[in-house]
Fold this sequence. Notes:
Chain A has 14 helices and eight strands. By secondary structure, chain A is α/β, with parallel strands linked by helices.
Amino acid sequence: MKTRLAFILGCLIMVSCQRSNTTETTGDSAVASDPLLSWNDTPNKKVIVDFVTAVTTEGSPKFVPVADRIAVFDNDGTLWCEQPLYFEVVYSLMATRQIATQVTALQKKPEIKALVDGDMKTFMKRGENGLLEAVAISHTAITPEEFNKSASAWLDTALHKKYEKKYTELTYKPMVELLAYLRANQFKTFIVSGGTSMFIRTFSEAAYGIPPDQVIGTMFRGEFQQKDSSMRVTLKPELFHNDDKEGKPVAIYQFIGKKPILAFGNSDGDHAMLQWTSTNSLPNLALILHHTDSVREYAYDRDSPIGKLDKALDEGLQKGWVIVDMKNDFKVIFSYQ
Amino acid sequence: MKTRLAFILGCLIMVSCQRSNTTETTGDSAVASDPLLSWNDTPNKKVIVDFVTAVTTEGSPKFVPVADRIAVFDNDGTLWCEQPLYFEVVYSLMATRQIATQVTALQKKPEIKALVDGDMKTFMKRGENGLLEAVAISHTAITPEEFNKSASAWLDTALHKKYEKKYTELTYKPMVELLAYLRANQFKTFIVSGGTSMFIRTFSEAAYGIPPDQVIGTMFRGEFQQKDSSMRVTLKPELFHNDDKEGKPVAIYQFIGKKPILAFGNSDGDHAMLQWTSTNSLPNLALILHHTDSVREYAYDRDSPIGKLDKALDEGLQKGWVIVDMKNDFKVIFSYQ
């Protein structure tokens, strides 16, 4: 979490953007049976379809048994938008402000006091620590049940400033189709995200068809609390697993127990996961979602404080990983479209 | 791991037992469509079937949606035999002896030196620490790939002294049937074990139909190592998660993300998991496998150093949890029968 969040402070003041005037549809002329209707018929789409066909065709030299068809996806910037600020951070700042307004003891920390006062200048001065503090409070100062309720309510109502859409409507339609296409081909699809498991699990099943136990994210340390006949798991404001960079392959090993044959990411935070997947002795595919569409979404890579894509892009270009170009490869961007 | 292993030292010298002469079959007279053929038609079997029927019948007041049909099972003593010593510990002692014979630096620790020398008296004097040391060496001094190879080879060849059968043949047939029955009713089945994930994953898919990502166990800390183009996850001899007692509900929360509606254990190590499951607001079932069959298997509970069942039994009896009586409820015990 720490490294992941290091980049985002410069972005706390929301970027003001024009809403795009995209009028594209899901493509009336496409073949009805195409499971990837929201993708343009580009070479990248062909590579994906050819890979899935090869690993699922019995007798093919690239055939992979069902049990080994593990596919892992980053979330922020890969399955849904992450600009201008990771949506979970937007939620956390709101929630922490709300919690600390009521639980005034939390305001002993100057960064939290500043957040409650709406003094973002002071809050930002505390840098990464202030941000981590805010995320920790929003996720651990309440019970997991209260968190679920609060995060779900936020996702049900809050709107993204640029698109004026609910955040869960900003999942990428072509990626949701890809997940379904893989599952139809007996892949097991997982999220391996720098965001927290608990946040992603509040919407992953509805948004992506991915159940909670197939969501791996950053985790706070859990504790079992028992008082008479009441018992619950609570979380402490202490990192248990940092699911970013090298933490991703480690988590895949620990929680999935198999090396994936397909990994899809969009930033240097996914680099180790992509590299590790590409060392699978089974046929494998590493994919990067390159944000190239400044009109319909955002265009960013090497210099972005959010979703910085630099070293992974170099290696991807060099090694022939699939670099999905959102502008050219995506017929439609968002699920609401 | 530490607490779990604290009990077993007294058992390091294998108990010598007569092989049972059981001649029971899978029950020719039973209805062919009975998915629980190896269970006797007892009230306990009826409770299980009635529960599964109620939660899967649409319109039933106890109906539970598919997504919430989470079932968790302990492994040692619940899905396979754990006497006279946890099978993973038997493996670990053998493997550590083998590794430390080659990597002599490991013999600097007196307990490991004693193990290599076959001096079990000295080894046992080191108590729990010696045992933990041995487990850690067997699981972390080699790569995960080498571990898989070694553990799989051992499971393919080593025989249990009492039954003269491979350990994977000592899975409980009625329990394997129960797992399949639950899955046929769209439950998702998980192992939540005090043993390590890495050991259980070497056989869980073949033995139980449970894939690696649905196996939660004790874990050592992982580390991503990269050297030029080679990269791998290795494990350090340091506990990352102790999946015993309160560690079980915590792991279920962290890795599954939902409270189960069915939990099955056999010892006080499963107590917290059973308690927590029974607080589910959805209809739920807590079950304990009570080892009551001294002839066909082993009879033990409150005073056993392995699989001690005391407080959980008290609470189970008081709360009306299902206490499965192996002697009366199991028509057949083992999968090889």
